[in-house]
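Field guide to reading this record: the first block holds the primary sequence, the second block holds the structure written as discrete tokens, and the final block holds curator observations. Each block starts with its own label. This record concerns GH16 domain-containing protein, catalogued under organism Nymphaea colorata.

BLOCK 1 — SEQUENCE
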Amino acid sequence: MGDMHSLSNFFLLRSLVLVAAASFFSFQPATSNFFRDVDVTWGGGRAVIAGDGQQLSLSMDRASGSGFQSKNEFLYGKFDVTLKLIPGNSAGTVTAYY
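BLOCK 2 — STRUCTURE
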């Protein structure tokens, strides 16, 4: 009885490892393109897509800023931000990511 239980656990563990390995090796990260994947929601000319859709530049002036929204929902993602503030006192500059 003990040998049968050990053998059963071995096959169960082996099956789980095979499923995990198959899931890992079948994973393909999504490639994004701002032209295809986002809508500029406000700011008109202050939102510029460049670099074959790989870069999105948002800017602001004294009156307004700019924004964009994804066309799809994502479980997770990564983005990098470079932020340039005005020289001197930049208090009151608001940045947000939702």
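BLOCK 3 — OBSERVATIONS
Residues 32 and 54 are 7 Å apart (CA to CA).
The two ends are 57 Å apart (CA to CA).
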